[in-house]
């Protein structure tokens, strides 16, 4: 006979599991802290719902029927699921985690943020996976966070979305990067030289609207004479080596490539606010323990990069 379509509640499922394990109405009543008559009533109801005796007497004790034995595994799985719903995990152990985490970030963070995060991630969660995706891939980071495809987004926005949770990570000032043999001699980059020079710029992934640096410079001084535009930040330093262009970027990015290539860093000759880096996440993962762990890992990695001996900043409310 098939299972009745009537609703079977979690209490009956727990009674069935305990009866099948204990093989006795009295022992099941003792384990569940109920009276024997109450367990007998529950067993009678279970028999009606399943169309099977479930437990039959064999001598002085009871044994499960074939149907009862077949139900032991699925009943245990159902109870496990109920316990997960009613009593969620109170801790997250990255050391045994096997899930995949995804972070959306622009490619200009790759040379300093990403290696530091990967180093910490692999040390803490050796069996888990970490995937980085572009901020605007697959419909944008906002959609990715909302759908759950992306766990976290890292970037620098003048006006971060106000419907997402946000945590500032660090500030980075704007500087100029150019080749060592640039016609503008070291320490001589003033506003006039900056305005007359040819500039290199990198577009956003979508190519629409002004970039973060353009917005920061809009009220600061003369417009840049952008003569070369590239799609990726990682190409820019190698173009600078072969040209007399100037690239306005962050100190972290400029310092990294100045140590690798024949490039030098000059101060930006106009006043511009620093760029602030954030990590963003959606309400759907705000309380998830594994997401809290990932956010803390990113915060600690950035703290080491900036050389700040400070405690991790609390999550935004």
The gist of it:
This protein is α/β, with parallel strands linked by helices. The protein contains eleven helices and twelve strands.
What labels would you give this structure?
Arc Repressor Mutant, subunit A, rod-shaped, 38% helix, 5-stranded mixed beta sheet, D-Maltodextrin-Binding Protein, domain 2, 317 residues, alpha/beta, disordered N terminus, 3 domains
Model description:
It is a single chain. With 317 residues, this protein is α/β, with parallel strands linked by helices. It has 3 domains: 10-86, Winged helix-like DNA-binding domain superfamily/Winged helix DNA-binding domain (Arc Repressor Mutant, subunit A, Orthogonal Bundle), CATH 1.10.10.10; 94-171 and 275-305, D-Maltodextrin-Binding Protein, domain 2 (3-Layer(aba) Sandwich), CATH 3.40.190; 174-267, D-Maltodextrin-Binding Protein, domain 2 (3-Layer(aba) Sandwich), CATH 3.40.190. The chain has helices at 10-22, 25-32, 36-50, 66-86, 113-124, 141-147, 191-196, 212-217, 236-241, 251-258, 289-305, and strands at residues 55-58, 61-64, 100-104, 129-133, 152-155, 165-172, 174-179, 198-202, 225-230, 246-250, 263-267, 275-281. The strands form 3 sheets. Strands 4-3-5-12-6 form a 5-stranded mixed sheet, with helices on both faces. The chain has a 5-stranded mixed sheet with strand order 9-8-10-7-11. It has a two-stranded antiparallel sheet with strand order 1-2. Helix 1 crosses helix 2 (25-32) and helix 5 (113-124) packs across helix 11 (289-305). The longest helix has 21 residues, at 66-86. It is rod-shaped, with a radius of gyration of 31 Å.
């Amino acid at each position: 006979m098939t299972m009745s379509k009537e609703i079977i509640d979690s209490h009956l499922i727990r009674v069935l599991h305990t009866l099948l394990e204990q093989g006795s109405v009295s022992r099941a009543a003792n384990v569940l802290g109920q009276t024997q008559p109450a367990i007998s009533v529950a067993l009678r109801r279970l028999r009606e719902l399943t169309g099977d005796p479930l437990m039959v007497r064999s001598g002085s004790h009871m044994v499960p029927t074939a149907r009862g034995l077949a139900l032991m595994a699925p009943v245990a799985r159902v109870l496990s699921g109920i316990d997960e719903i009613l009593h969620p995990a109170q801790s997250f152990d990255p050391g045994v985690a096997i899930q995949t985490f995804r972070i959306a970030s622009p490619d200009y963070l790759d040379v300093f943020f990403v290696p530091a995060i990967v180093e910490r991630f692999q040390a803490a969660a050796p069996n888990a996976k970490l995937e980085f995706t572009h901020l605007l891939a697959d419909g944008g980071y906002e959609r990715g966070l909302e759908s759950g495809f992306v766990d976290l987004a890292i970037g620098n926005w003048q006006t971060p979305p106000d419907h997402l949770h946000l945590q500032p990570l660090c500030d980075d000032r704007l500087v100029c990067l150019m080749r060592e043999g640039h016609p503008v001699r070291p320490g001589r980059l003033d506003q006039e030289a900056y305005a007359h020079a040819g500039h290199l710029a990198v577009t956003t992934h979508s190519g629409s609207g002004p970039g973060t640096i353009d917005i920061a410079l809009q009220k600061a001084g003369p417009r840049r004479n952008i003569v070369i535009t590239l799609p990726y930040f990682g190409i820019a330093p190698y173009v600078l080596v072969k040209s007399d262009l100037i690239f306005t970027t962050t100190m972290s990015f400029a310092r990294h490539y100045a140590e690798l290539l024949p490039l030098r860093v000059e101060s930006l000759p106009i006043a511009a606010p620093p760029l602030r880096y954030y990590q963003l996440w959606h309400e759907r993962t705000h309380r998830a323990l594994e997401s809290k762990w990932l956010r803390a890992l990113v915060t600690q990695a950035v703290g080491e990069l900036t050389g700040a001996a400070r405690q991790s900043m609390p999550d935004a409310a």
